[in-house]
Amino acid sequence: MAEPASQRAYRAPCPGCGAPVEFRSAQSAFVVCSYCSSTVVRDGDKLERVGKVAELFEDHSPLQLMAGGRFKDRAFTLIGRLQYRGSAGAWTEWSALFDDGTTAVLGEDNGTYVFSVPASMQRDPPQASQFRLGATTAIAGKSFNVTSNEEVALISAQGELPKLPPLGQKFAMVELRSADGEVLSIDYGIQPPALTRGNAVQLEDLQMSGLREESAKEEAGRQFSCPNCGAPVEVTLAMSKSITCRACNSLIDLTSGTGGQMAHAMQDEPVQPLIPLGSVGQLQGVHWQVVGFQHRMGQEPDDPDERFGWSEYLLYNRKRGFTFLVDSTEGWSIVKPTTGAPSLSPDGQTAVYLNTSYKQQYSYEAETDYVAGEFYWPVVRGQKTTNSDFAKGDSLLSMERGPKEVTWSSGSKITSDAVAKAFKLEGKKDLLKRSDAGPTSKTGIGCATIIIIFIVILLLLGLLKSCMDDGRSGSSGRSSGGSFGGYSSGGGHK
């Protein structure tokens, strides 16, 4: 890509090792030497070594330094990279330099991208503690929902950077999202706090060039012995934070490394996925690989005896990141965490997102009770969230609330035949069929009606006793229709 015409690049020897370092942007104050990882600060034409950064953690990102693209007909080049970690995962912010010398941020979180530009408020932003999770606030006359407020830390950096928070030192980061899909981030790692505003983008829309040819790690996958049974366990995805042992079904936490100190939890009563892990299928024109599976249970807040189950398959694509295929007794759906945050009505019965109004179908407490495969967040058996599901026709919207983050997901229903065709499971068509296969009313068959019909049939067959069994599998008497999305990775810029 051509050198920006409005400025000149500055090159000088690294104070740490003597290798050449370069500043392409007049706004950049720091650069990380690619040879010795020294952090170099620029003061006019003087360079000073101020420390050393940790090595980058490997990931499956197709992006790399000096990759180029176009945003709103403006050419840019990726010149820097900051890696952050929060309580539930890590993400990357790429520094993008436009040809006119201005900069932007391309946020990347497990295959989801947000392109943001620097922003300002009419006054200094409030302290992070004043942003209450789930609250609605106005920024520059626009309504935003506080979707994340947690302490994060910079874990590594690469290339040329306009800012550089202290390495490893925790600071607050707040994210607000709007009903039209806009993301506003407030970074308290520097003073005054830095603000950016952006929207979700697809790599295809950015017309990227110079991407990595292979998103997989160059070295062999990590392999270790299961801390419970000793069987070999291999980690395929570089960003995985949890994995299960195929021999004993133990759930293993990878966040503390792959040594003997790894935490693990035994899992009994396994729920076998209908779509095998590792399967590749084409849904909505995209090829997805099944990398994870989890079974979840829901419970009515006012009725502890009313429990229902559903399954979620975690799907991965190199350029699209992760999405979820949800299997409930009411049908199949494919969903993905949203970039924006829908606006809720005061009574919580309707939600508006991208100018579409959705009506609440269910509200319940959700808990993960079985997992298999790999996950990009540190999934824990027994993990609980508060969920609300909304729908308009075949379009779905769901809200999950945890201790530090509110996550919205959106998607649509798909037929069981489409699932069978996508993953070449025509021989399992009958097992994949759900209530969506038959005619239903506009509002669906009520839960009570289903249960009454079921009991009457059992009475006629003389099998009333068996209906008292606890149906822990995905075929329980009532389903919420799935959470429509599953747990988010934490961090930001999804």
Q: What topology does this entry show?
A:
Elements: E1 10-13, E2 20-23, E3 30-32, E4 38-43, E5 46-52, E6 68-71, E7 74-86, E8 89-98, E9 103-109, E10 112-119, E11 136-139, E12 142-161, E13 171-177, E14 182-187, E15 194-201, E16 222-225, E17 232-235, E18 242-244, E19 251-253, E20 264-265, E21 280-283, E22 286-300, E23 303-317, E24 321-328, E25 331-337, E26 343-344, E27 350-353, E28 356-375, E29 384-392, E30 395-401, E31 406-414, H1 416-422, H2 429-432, H3 447-461
Antiparallel strand pairs: 1-2, 3-4, 3-12, 4-5, 6-7, 7-8, 7-12, 8-9, 9-10, 10-15, 11-12, 12-13, 13-14, 14-15, 16-17, 18-19, 18-28, 19-20, 21-22, 22-23, 22-28, 23-24, 24-25, 25-31, 26-27, 27-28, 28-29, 29-30, 30-31
Summarize this entry quickly.
This protein has helices spanning 416-422, 429-432, 447-461, and strands at residues 10-13, 20-23, 30-32, 38-43, 46-52, 68-71, 74-86, 89-98, 103-109, 112-119, 136-139, 142-161, 171-177, 182-187, 194-201, 222-225, 232-235, 242-244, 251-253, 264-265, 280-283, 286-300, 303-317, 321-328, 331-337, 343-344, 350-353, 356-375, 384-392, 395-401, 406-414. Strand 29 (384-392) and strand 30 (395-401) form a beta hairpin. By secondary structure, the chain is mainly beta.
What oligomeric state do these chains adopt? single chain
**Would you report the number of β strands?**
31
Distance N to C terminus: 28 Å
Instruction: Give the averaged pLDDT, no decimals.
Output: 77
What general outline do the C-alpha atoms trace? globular
Please tell me the total number of domains: 3
